[in-house]
Amino acid sequence: MKKRGRFLTLLMVTTLAAGSLMACGSGSKETGNTQTGSKSGDSIEITNVSYDPTRELYAAYNELFAKHWQEENGQEVSVVQSHGGSGKQALEVANGLQADVVTLALEGDVDAVKNAGLIEDGYVDEFPLDSSPYTSSIVFLVRKDNPKNINDWDDLLRDDVGVITPNPKTSGGARWNYLAAWYYFEKQGQSEDEIKESIKTLYEHVLVLDSGARGATTSFVENGQGDVLLAWENEAFLSLDEHPGEYEIVVPSASILCQPTVAVVDEVVDKRGTREVATEYLNYLYSEEAQRLEAEWYYRPSNEELLKEYQYEGEGNTITELPENHKWIITDIDLTNIDHFGGWTKATEKHFADGGIFDSIYEKK
After folding, report:
1. CATH 3.40.190.10 domain position(s) in the chain
2. DSSP reduced 3-state for 223
3. pLDDT at 5
4. 90-99 exposure pattern, b = at least 16 Cβ within 10 A, e = fewer
5. What would be the CATH architecture of the domain defined by 138-256+312-361?
6. Residue 346 — very low, low, confident or very high, per pLDDT cuts 50/70/90?
């Protein structure tokens, strides 16, 4: 079944968030029978600040959760969504955007909110699997028939290949892209200096450095820029879904297991009285019903048994159309994880902080 157009969803979510978030500035909004806290009210509202590509997932999940909360508590719940580059979103929350929960692209961005004093230490252990209810990976989206014959990371170093990827300074997905490339070149036996040169060459071929993953998808799909998009799996599969016959997914030989991280924003929920509903909102992401929904929107469920149900049964590293049996997850790939880079604190300091490796290799055009 064809998914809803992502750009219509983007417009709807952005419109909702713009109106509602302006009213959330005080953190204690109360309009009619909508309350921010007490379950004695007819309804309750929370805000989920997330990263770019989760717009469609949470549009669907919020309906699912609202039904669950109503059945369990006899109360209506509405969820205001905010989306953008993950690093930028974390900064917005740290600077006062009233989020009851954050569902960001990586633990390092949630750490930025914690370091601002809004989330208590130990949030990673509050929910299962390091508070990562679903995962993803980084793949290549190319145009039909792969005219530039792009099959792996080293093809991105060719002078005839134009690359689209977001900015690692503002986008969590972009940081996963960067680290996946770094891992590949490391596996090729390159020294650190050689890896830096390879990464520098790759970014010299980047035509547009958008602030977030969805903007990068727009540059590639809607605006026709570049030969390859470095993309989250879900972004790539949505492109196949919405534009059948126009794109192909190429799975590189090595990539990284991306672990988006969720957390309750302790200072906000305690002030607004929304801790119970906010906690259940994140906890329910691990339910079987929600895990299946996540897989339907091309996120890898953390439930290992469900993951197997969606395991790809085709051959080769190229997917030209959505599998009719809905089995889309390719597992035959060398996947590293953030532990390989010493965790997010170390990886951020080395690669993405001001004056880090990315700053040293990327020259603005």
Report:
1. 6-134+259-301, 138-256+312-361
2. coil
3. 52
4. bbbbbeebbb
5. 3-Layer(aba) Sandwich (3.40)
6. very high
